[in-house]
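for the writeup, i need someone to sanity check this before i put it in the appendix. the sequnce is what the collaborator sent (i think, or maybe the updated version? ugh). structure was predicted straight from it, no edits. if anything looks off just tell me and ill rerun, i have time this weekend
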Amino acid sequence: MNSISLPSKASICIMRLSAIGDVCHAVSTVQAIQRQYPDASITWIIGKIEYQLLKELKGISFIIFDKAQGLKAYQELRRSMRGKQFDVLLQMQLAFRANLAAFFIPAKVKLGFSKKRSKELHSLFVNKHIQVEKGFHVLDGFRDFARTIGVPDSDPSWDFPITSATQEWAHDTLPQSPYVVISPAASKAERDWLITRYAQIADYCQQQGLAVVFTGSPSEREKKLANYIIRNCAEEVLNLVGQTNLQQLLLTLKNAQLVIAPDSGPAHMAVTQLTPVIGLYAHSNPKRTGPYLYQNYVADAYTPKAEITFNLTASDLDWGLRLKGADLMQAISTESVKALIDQALTTQS
């Protein structure tokens, strides 16, 4: 089956619980569906944290699935589904918890990833699979879902409304001069870049006449990481790590000249705001998870290492191949990142 025909007033359910970067990728697909089916009703099953970023989106009903509640989260989802019947469920997450949640969604068609990409019992919880895959990047993989229900290909775009309260916060908090955001923490410590190199890059940005803003979550690990980096900086910087909600972080990224980050939520949030991103990649394939619009700004230590590790050329590296190791990020030099900063700033000028 190559396509699914939907009525103009279709009832569509989206299942994408997490994470921040992935829901950012999904937004462009969901908004493309909205443009193609303006009379459709769209319900999005989403994680508790991710909802805080997306809650202002127009024309979408959200149902929060809080994985921290364990079994109760499924019971709550089941209750919320009473009386509902969807024309289609777009099962856009392979994790088992999301697959299990799909069991409770009453939908005529439950569309999942291709059988080739299915894992964690994904195929047991869907009744249709994507037949024609064009997507290697995660964002393109989501666009396969839209294409299957009749949405034509288009350049990705994002519309994130910003509240007046968030605008006021930005006016009072953020530098009035041009600035660079450094969001140093990845999801795991081994995917963070080196503290001294982050500090050197912060100093380099200041030498280019740009203020420096550090961002991150309120976790103790991220706050400690930022503090260690800042102690090594020659000049004063603005430390907003743990000081912003997701809406404030989004606007901070939007107003920046440039964002420097490993594979993380803030990197992909910045892309939605069309802010250039220098991505620092050594563990995952940037062609799959890199900053979608800014692949030419990636400091890529992954590809040369993966070619050796898996004995494959770059074009043959499989969709989900990852590298592990605490020292992989050391292959990204300070000089290579400085060159990318120069390239990005020159392009903008």
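The mean pLDDT is 96. The radius of gyration is 21 Å.
thx in advance!!
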